[in-house]
Amino acid sequence: MAITLGPNQYGKAEVRLVTVRREGTVHHLKDLTVSTSLRGDLAATHLTGDNADVVATDTQKNTVYAFAKEAPVGEIEDFALRLGRHFVDSFDHISGARVLIDEHGWNRISGHDHAFSQAGSEKRTTAVTVQDGQAWVVSGLDDLVVLKSTGSEFHGFPRDKYTTLAETNDRILATAVTARWRYQGDGIDWATSHAEVRRILLETFADKHSLSLQQTLYAMGEAVLKERGEVAEVRLSLPNKHHFLVDLSPFGLKNDNEVFYAADRPYGLIEGVVLRDDAEDAGLAWHTLAAF
């Protein structure tokens, strides 16, 4: 029986980075979590413990901080591309790099040049892979919490002896959107594209009369692809944040879709991919797909 080393990578996970860029009395804040992973000819360290080709994870962490000082971080996609290309170009034995970045939003407090309030749980994300002279950029967002108090139905599903869920023609639809979209190319106005994709996702969720969360998912992905030619595919994960009507009949009260119990778990989890048939060939290896 032959035993071999399979695909592998290593790096520094969740480097916390906060930068303050000063323009006179006006300050600009960036709050990031950066994870780096390198891959290449690393058999020696696994098989014999020879670390001659291992770029220490501490070095990767220091590089993140140094790059943040040497030039403005800018858009997270550009920062990730700079880091990934640096690692691949600087070390002959490193053939690929993946850089994951979450951006934690802060809002400027009105009337103040250097005071901020945290924007909430929503994060902007990117995953950049650099390998074989190519770069793939997968951006997205996490924890975009949305709710519509009508315009959603769910009925016509099969029933068996275990089915207790009542059909409904009017329900609350709520979810916390996790979205990833793969770009075609890298010469893109990242900030504008991200803002527009986010807008499209929100508007479609609000406007689409929903017969199922699956239908809403497809409509959201389809709308992004129709409006944003730089996006090749959209992947969405939508937990169904259930809101159940409270039975008020013991109190002699009628509940006309006004009083609900918000259940945090268990929840339905709806996931799917929407892609264009004319998209550039992804050419993605196992490690790049993991970025989704």
Automatic annotation (TrEMBL):
Entry keyword set: Oxidoreductase, Purine metabolism
Enzyme Commission designation: 1.7.3.3
One Gene Ontology term from the biological process aspect of the record: urate catabolic process
GO molecular function, one term: urate oxidase activity
Reactions catalysed according to its record: urate + O2 + H2O = 5-hydroxyisourate + H2O2
KW Oxidoreductase (keyword) present: yes
Biological pathway: Purine metabolism; urate degradation; (S)-allantoin from urate: step 1/3
Residues annotated as the enzyme's active site: K12, T57, H242
Chain's role: Catalyzes the oxidation of uric acid to 5-hydroxyisourate, which is further processed to form (S)-allantoin.
Protein name, per record: Uricase
Organism: Amycolatopsis orientalis (Nocardia orientalis)
